[in-house]
Amino acid sequence: MFTTHIRSFVHRRSHITQGQQQALDTLLAKWGVSYQTSLLDLEGTFGRRADTILEIGFGMGETTEQIALSRPQDNFLGVEVFNAGVGSLLKRIEASSVGNVRIIQHDAVEVLRDMIAPDSLAGVHIYFPDPWPKLRHHKRRLVQSPFIQLLASRLKPGGYIHCATDWEHYAMQMLAVLGQEPALENTCEGFAPRPEYRPLTKFESRGLRLGHGVWDVIFKRKVD
What we know:
Layout: H1 18-31, H2 42-46, E1 52-56, H3 62-70, E2 75-79, H4 83-96, E3 101-104, H5 108-115, E4 121-127, H6 145-154, E5 155-165, H7 168-180, E6 184-186, H8 202-209, E7 215-221
Parallel strand pairs: 1-2, 1-4, 2-3, 4-5
Antiparallel strand pairs: 5-7, 6-7
Helix pairs in contact: 1-4, 3-4
């Protein structure tokens, strides 16, 4: 599965601040985990045994930091490809002394395929992934059936997948794709209310004030 795949991201030349670059240079070795083609020892990585939540595409890390601070009993493994976002979260981790976050700077599909053991994750967060709004680009969207099948296999029974988007068409696709995965079941009738642990970002708050919609989708892996 996923020996080759269409990437859901494109490396563009993006601005990175001096502080973000400095964090990459000095802190990635402390809080980062290198991509490898063998299974990751989660207990050894975090130095403790705890439920691990995988966050895919954490952007600038604002939400990751807040959730990790509010849930110190859980481990958070963030996967992001862009230097600015990784540098930003590294700065946040250091400033807040958040000890329960680790970062892998690599393609999430390959991380899941190669590094995450089956039945090992307590949850997955996919917040505001690139919507690829043009029809010809929909194939690049992250939430597709093969990917969700892979994700579901890495969840513990009872573990959850939580997606959020402000693009209604993508929200409908998320609901349909997760609903078609036989290993998963919806926790709600349709879309879910935003859980307390997912904070409102500044961007999201602004959108809501302007009348834009935000949709949350939360499924759990079935318990046999």
